[in-house]
Amino acid sequence: MNCIGVTAVTRDHHGTPENGFRISIGGGMGWKAYVGQDLFGFVPEDAIREYCRAIALLYRDHGDRFNRTTSRLKVVVARLGIDRCREIVLENLQNEQKEFRNSIAEPVTDIGAPYPARPLTEEDPVGSDGTVTVRIIVPKGELGSPTLLRIAELSEIYGNQRINTDNRQNLSLHGVAPGQVAVLKAEIHQLGFVTDGFFGLTDMVTCVGTTYCPKAVTTTRRSSIS
Fold first, then answer.
1. Residue span of the structural domain in which 87 resides
2. Are 45 and 53 within 8 A, CB to CB?
């Protein structure tokens, strides 16, 4: 459903595991839904930024800048076809003298470790280093600067000195010691936020509506659960 979808994969390269990414482009929702199509089955992990830039240049040169109804990469892919889009992306890489010969257009078999159907849906995920991720549900994705500053302080006290955002308009603090989780959650609750209930009805992703989106036709955020 995204303009660019990047999925981590590991392939068998002459008997040696090689990490990289599968790239799909041209997905989208809205007035007409499009399913993203596979652009490359495998791209080396150290080249993913160059490939994403080349895809952005594809839209820059072939996208519609005038009609906002069709100003999406999905329309470019539907009009040109995925094969032609792939050719243009490779041309963009070549024009900028970037390495592109190690990519594979066809699907590859992923030999990496299996992952659950819905990763990170459990409460307080524990990383491979034994530390915990504590998540903060932000109603409507909105919060004031004093609150954000306090969350930054909490990350410095209990976490890895960073604030992470996600596509559910929420925040998370990583690197929390297991013994500090309860204390950190109590601090977050004092700010008026909850830390449990992700992926449920209390954690709805809000359409920005006319507040921020030029395509919107209504003030959706006023109707959202707070």
1. 4-95
2. no
